[in-house]
């Protein structure tokens, strides 16, 4: 039962497998067959039995089908046999027809092949035309590029290159010639860069050479503009009554109109000939190069190169020649080159964008300005000619005004001008030192003689002198001062004019100009003129007469200082009453010079007295006096009388002081002569002779050689000599010794030491001349008295020393 149930379960499975084999592709039957062997044992045998049974079934079905269709097959074969004959006939006919068609189509095939070839050629031609239509514009543009390169239209050539690259080359990029062109464009660009850079270098070299011409033109235009403005201002001043009076001379209105007319005519002429920087320089290389580098996308490289080269040129321009300070042309060339450089930079700044910036030009200008100031400060210090310094100042003003017109700050240049102004004043002072020296050397130091009214007015026009008494005197007459006074006054005014010239165009107020003029004039008076006067006074060849005239001259120059104040006021229109107005120090200057001259008079007068005293030839051992004063002393007194006659023109105190100084010096010289250590012996006769000379001095003093002394004031100069000589002449030693130290002493001015020295000289003389006097009683008594007096005098001297 179990086996039968198992066999029943296997049969459906075998049927399924057979169905799969029948329905499955032969290549895929492997897995199905494998399942037969994977089943139970002996399954394949049963499967084979089942397979054989299935085959037998199929064979039976095939047999049945063949039996069913066999008659139809026989009928078909029969029909085919019948058709076979007709088919052969038809084949013969078709073959014949085909032959005849082949023969007829050979000509058509020939024409058709010709048509195909033509169509191919036509298509090729059309393709060629189309390609040529694409290539020709490229070739034309490339030809245009070559032409532009040959005609140096590089900017256009770059634009053409851009069109070729962006528009034309993409259309024909597959062609070899296009690749060659594309490969050649970078080389062309480099060529253009090199050529444009070469043009730029030529341009930079050109503007370096023409900078002075550009600067000269710009400075001329600025100067003409300034001249025109000043002329207009002068005309306005005339119209509004702002005429200036200088030394009572008015500038005529007609003259101002003529000056203005000339300025206007010059301005018109200049307008016709105005040249701009574009007229002098071709800037196209810069524009081309800038555009080329902009197109090439390398604008920064160009800007850096341009700025670097211009900075190098700036340093070259700012480097002065070593001999620049010798001539004004050297300074002018220096300034014109700098102006030309910055005018070009300003033009580049305004016509290009980015090549030159305001910050760059400001930085360059600040660097240049520092260098310019240092150069001018160094080179101007070598200028010893005031005219050259003044021309330098004018050049600096024009230079500053020109660059200021282009927007460059120039305040530091005007500050520099104040330094140069001090130097200019120094050169003026040196020049006027020579002028004053020449005036003093040419002066004869005598009052100015005038013989008629014309000469009188000529002097008055040069020097402000007012003296009603002199006006009333008939001709011929004399001015009290010498010829140097009006000359000095004129030269001081000329100095003020010269100093004013530097102050012009400095953009300063009238108050500042007034202050500058007064300070420079003060320097002239207190340093230059004062120094010249002092040197003149101290010159050995200047005598007493000349010194007297110098004192008179300084007095009149001192009185003229107020007119110099008015002169400066008229120039600047600044009242002297204005607060902080500087005053002229001429009063103190001339007072100091006068005091120096007075001191020199006293010194020279004493030197003259010493010269006469040196002529003294006393016989100090004479036994009896000559009975008259010594010749040298009488000559000295006569000289003093004539000199003091000249002193009548001096101020009273000066003459009195000179006279007192002379008498005191004479008294001192005579006293020194008595007490000279080289003089060993003096006789009483010599003392008596010396007394006669002193009497003549006292008579001279009492004759009042100079008026103004009260009583016997002048005689007191000889009181020391008089009391000493009286003591020895009267031999009144008892009174002297008894009254010594008393205020009412008769010999109060006699110093014990002086008396002792003179007494010892006389003692030695007595011993020498009276060898045998010791045998006479009177002489012995006198000698003892002298010895006693000497001892007492020595005790007084020793007492004075201890007290001291």
What structural keywords apply?
disordered N terminus; 76% helix; 4 strands; EXOC6_Sec15_N; two-stranded antiparallel sheet; 804 residues; two-stranded antiparallel ribbon; Exocyst complex component; mainly alpha
Number of helices: 27
How many individual β-strands? 4
Helical residue percent?
A: over 70%
Largest sheet: 2 strands, antiparallel
* Class by alpha and beta content: mainly alpha
Strand order within the widest beta sheet: 1-2
Radius of gyration in whole Å, from Cα?
68 Å
Termini separation? 186 Å
Instruction: Label the overall shape.
Output: rod-shaped
Fraction in beta strands: under 5%
Contiguous uncertain segments of 5+ residues:
1-8, 238-261, 266-272, 770-775
The pLDDT mean sits at 81
Structure characterization notes:
Belongs to the SEC15 family. Keywords: Exocytosis, Transport. Residues 413-761 form the Exocyst complex subunit EXOC6/Sec15 C-terminal domain. The protein has 804 residues and is mainly α. It has 27 helices and 4 strands. It has helices spanning 2-23, 30-38, 43-150, 154-168, 176-239, 253-272, 277-280, 284-295, 299-318, 328-351, 358-380, 386-405, 411-442, 453-462, 468-472, 484-503, 510-537, 544-559, 561-572, 586-614, 631-646, 652-674, 684-702, 719-730, 733-739, 752-769, 777-803; strands spanning 245-246, 249-250, 448-450, 477-479. It has a two-stranded antiparallel sheet. It has a two-stranded antiparallel sheet with strand order 3-4. Helix 5 (176-239) packs across helix 10, helix 8 (284-295) packs antiparallel against helix 9 (299-318) and helix 21 runs parallel beside helix 23. It is rod-shaped, with a radius of gyration of 68 Å. Mean pLDDT is 81; it is low at 1-8, 238-261, 266-272 and 770-775.
């Amino acid at each position: 039962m179990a086996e039968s149930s198992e066999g029943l379960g296997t049969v459906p499975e075998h049927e399924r497998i057979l169905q799969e084999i029948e329905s499955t592709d032969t290549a895929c039957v492997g897995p199905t067959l494998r399942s037969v062997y994977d089943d139970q044992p002996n399954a394949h045998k049963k499967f084979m039995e089942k397979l054989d049974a299935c085959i037998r079934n199929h064979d039976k079905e095939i047999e049945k089908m063949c039996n069913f269709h066999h008659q139809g097959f026989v009928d078909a074969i029969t029909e085919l046999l019948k058709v076979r004959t007709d088919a052969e006939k038809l084949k013969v006919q078709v073959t014949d027809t085909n032959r005849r068609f082949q023969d007829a189509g050979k000509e058509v095939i020939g024409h058709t092949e010709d048509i195909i070839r033509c169509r191919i050629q036509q298509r090729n031609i059309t393709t060629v035309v189309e390609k040529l239509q694409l290539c020709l514009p490229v070739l034309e543009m490339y030809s245009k590029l070559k032409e532009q390169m040959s005609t140096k239209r590089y900017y256009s050539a770059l634009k053409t290159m851009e069109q070729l690259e962006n528009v034309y080359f993409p259309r024909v990029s597959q062609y070899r010639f296009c690749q060659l062109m594309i490969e050649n464009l970078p080389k062309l660009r480099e060529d253009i860069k090199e050529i444009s850079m070469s043009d730029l270098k030529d341009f930079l070299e050109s503007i370096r050479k023409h900078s002075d011409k550009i600067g000269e033109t710009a400075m001329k235009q600025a100067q003409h503009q300034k001249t025109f403005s000043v002329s207009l201002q002068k005309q306005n001043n005339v119209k509004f009554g702002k005429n200036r009076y200088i030394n009572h001379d008015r500038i005529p209105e007609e003259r101002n109109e003529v000056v203005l007319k000339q300025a206007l005519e010059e301005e018109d002429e200049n307008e016709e000939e105005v040249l701009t920087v574009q007229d002098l320089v071709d800037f196209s290389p810069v524009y081309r190069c800038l555009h080329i580098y902009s197109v090439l996308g390398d604008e920064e490289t160009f800007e850096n190169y341009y700025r670097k080269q211009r900075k190098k040129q700036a340093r070259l321009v700012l480097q002065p020649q070593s001999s620049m300070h010798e001539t004004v042309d050297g300074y002018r060339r220096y300034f014109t080159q700098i102006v030309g450089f910055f005018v070009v930079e300003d033009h580049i700044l305004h016509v290009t964008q980015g090549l030159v910036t305001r910050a760059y030009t400001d930085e360059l200008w600040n660097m240049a300005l520092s260098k310019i100031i240092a150069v001018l400060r160094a080179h101007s210090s070598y200028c010893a000619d005031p005219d050259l310094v003044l021309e330098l100042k004018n050049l600096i003003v024009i230079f500053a005004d020109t660059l200021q017109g282009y927007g460059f700050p120039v305040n530091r240049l005007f500050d520099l001008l104040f330094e140069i102004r001090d130097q200019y004043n120094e050169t003026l002072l040196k020049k006027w030192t020579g002028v004053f020296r020449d005036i003093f050397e040419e002066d004869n130091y005598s009052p100015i003689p005038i013989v008629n009214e014309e000469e009188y007015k000529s002097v008055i026009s040069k020097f402000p002198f007012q003296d009603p008494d002199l006006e009333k005197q008939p001709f011929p007459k004399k001015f009290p001062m010498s010829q140097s006074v009006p000359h000095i006054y004129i030269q001081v005014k000329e100095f003020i004019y010269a100093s004013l010239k530097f102050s012009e165009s400095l953009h300063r107020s009238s108050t500042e100009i007034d202050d500058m003029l007064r300070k420079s004039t003060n320097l002239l008076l207190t340093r230059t003129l004062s120094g010249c006067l002092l040197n003149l006074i101290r010159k050995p060849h200047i005598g007493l007469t000349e010194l007297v005239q110098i004192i008179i001259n300084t007095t009149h120059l001192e009185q003229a200082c107020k007119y110099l104040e008015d002169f400066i006021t008229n120039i600047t229109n600044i009242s002297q009453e204005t607060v902080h107005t500087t005053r002229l120090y001429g009063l103190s200057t001339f007072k100091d010079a006068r005091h120096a001259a007075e001191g020199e008079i006293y010194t020279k007068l004493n030197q003259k007295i010493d010269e006469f005293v040196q002529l003294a030839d006393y016989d100090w051992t004479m036994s009896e006096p000559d009975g008259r004063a010594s010749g040298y002393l009488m000559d000295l007194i006569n000289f003093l009388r004539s000199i003091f006659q000249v002193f009548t023109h001096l101020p009273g105190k000066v003459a009195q002081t000179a006279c007192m100084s002379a008498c005191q010096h004479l008294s001192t010289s005579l006293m020194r002569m008595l007490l000279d250590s080289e003089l060993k012996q003096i006789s009483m006769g010599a003392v008596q002779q010396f007394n006669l000379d002193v009497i003549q001095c006292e008579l001279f003093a009492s004759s009042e050689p100079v008026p103004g002394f009260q009583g016997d004031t002048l005689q007191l100069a000889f009181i020391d000599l008089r009391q000493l000589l009286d003591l020895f002449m009267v031999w009144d030693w008892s009174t002297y010794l008894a009254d010594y130290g008393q205020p009412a002493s008769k010999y109060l001015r006699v110093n014990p030491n002086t008396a002792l020295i003179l007494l010892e000289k006389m003692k030695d003389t007595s011993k020498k001349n009276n060898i045998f006097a010791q045998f006479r009683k009177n002489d012995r008594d006198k000698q003892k008295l002298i010895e006693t007096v000497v001892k007492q005098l020595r005790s007084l001297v020793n007492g004075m020393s201890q007290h001291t």
